[in-house]
């Protein structure tokens, strides 16, 4: 018979209120392991349980639901401990001061993330509009001239990189006034423009939502935006100076 272990999601203040009916991996109920003002959110999982994509999503969705209501320090997916006593010793004793500092630093704050992607055809039109010489070169290249095709590809790639930088600047500067802090993540796709995490006050969410909506309308036809949140402050956990006052 497989042993039952504790899957760890995150840490909150013991006085924090949570949404009703929270479930985690395998739709198991989430419970608190508490001590001295802190509570670790866990659920039971069998030792031999397979990790599926649904488990990753359940972990993330639970933390997002909690973040919408209260400050939470997230724990990365895959932290499994043997029992409640180990939860208490590892988190509520060994990491107590650190976790209290993070909860204080992020009190009343959530992360929201904006992903921007350029429409491929719109991006190409824009780089050609900006650079008439590039447009003329493109029009003159013989499809059979491999060397010229390579030079054209390199020139277009460079122009797209500049376009991406300008578009990233637009996204960041538009949203920066609504945030306590911003973190720019790396993008991977050729037409991905920006992935910007913003630390905002929970009470300012409506203003942030409106600003993202305004930006979406501003860039319509050129870029598409994907807006995610509220989330725990994933992007900012490593940047807090705990000896200083909170972000707020």
Automatic annotation (TrEMBL):
Keywords: Gas vesicle
Pfam families associated with the record: GvpL_GvpF (PF06386)
Location relative to the cell: Gas vesicle
Organism this protein belongs to: Nocardioides pocheonensis
Protein's recorded name: GvpL/GvpF family gas vesicle protein
InterPro entries associated with the record: GvpL/GvpF
Similarity comment: Belongs to the gas vesicle GvpF/GvpL family.
GO biological process: one example: gas vesicle organization
Highest taxon in the source lineage: Bacteria
Coiled coil ranges: none
Entry's Gene Ontology cellular component terms: gas vesicle
